[in-house]
Amino acid sequence: MKKLLLTGVAASLCAGAALAEYPEKAITIVVPFAAGGPTDKVARDLAEVMRKSLGNQTILIDNVGGAGGTLGATKVAKAAPDGYTLLLHHIGMATAPALYRNMQYKTLEDFEYLGLVVDVPMTLIGKPSLPANNYAELAKWIDANRGKINLANAGLGSASHLCGLLYQSTVKVDMVTVPYKGTAPAMTDLLGGQVDLMCDQTTNTTSQIEAGKVKAFAVTSSKRLSGAALSKLPTLDEAGLKGFQVGIWHGVYAPKNTPKAVTDKINAAMKNALKDPDFMKRQEALGSVIISDARLNGAEHKKFVESEINRWGPVIKAAGQYAD
């Protein structure tokens, strides 16, 4: 018995030492969308500063796109729970249960929730040749062109898809939704005039707005944003759509049963990164709002995601847009 006790103590000490040395090798953050998109930008900015608090260990970005983010999330859910494979996902973490009937993971059961990092507002933008120059003119144009308006999105379950669903529901106008395989091709066709409108994250639209390549009509935040290009835009609430607000929040996750000592280290590194001056400056320029409330912590992060599942489920089901 004494020998068994000693063995158990030794094993515990070894495990503790291993955790204390985390990370001993490169960490991978899985982004469940294509490189160059809004979520990818957030992940790369975050990884660049998080590594400073993790012994300057390398943090790699692995873009695993497809199926509205569920392929990348599945990869992390099934990964070893050792802290070396993480997930950075947006609002799709909460909307996927309503959009996809055959997911290979359970959102609230198969992950350790590590905290939210940024909330990215959306912008309602249009093709350069659109005759409207402000939201009031756009509203009249939409009413006059019912049934003929093309609304682009980056694919089922994307942020632009979700914003488009809520917008159509709010203004009570059905549009022809045009899904693309990612944000970049959707933006290309909007710039070329092949589609009329898109509602996408500020991280993807700010540079196009600043360059005058698209027409910008409003933001989806609760108040106006800072930044030369975005501060001129009214909120949709101001423009008359009372209560309209969509923020594309981004959070960090680890596989279920990742040791608490490891998740605590990751959470601490994440919080330090959010205070980094360079990170803060980059996010402000893109219109992103850095999370500073209780959702920085895992338990509140999880409660928030559950509330978002309950919020978006009815909207998605009413639209009748599902995928197997």
From TrEMBL:
Record's signal peptide: 1-20
Keyword terms of this UniProt record: Receptor, Signal
Top-rank taxon: Bacteria
InterPro entries, per database record: BUG, Bug_dom1
Entry keyword Endoplasmic reticulum: no
A Pfam family reported for this protein in Swiss-Prot or TrEMBL: TctC
Family recorded in the similarity comment: Belongs to the UPF0065 (bug) family.
Protein name as it appears in the record: Tripartite-type tricarboxylate transporter receptor subunit TctC
Source species: Roseateles toxinivorans
Phylogenetic placement of the source organism: Bacteria, Pseudomonadati, Pseudomonadota, Betaproteobacteria, Burkholderiales
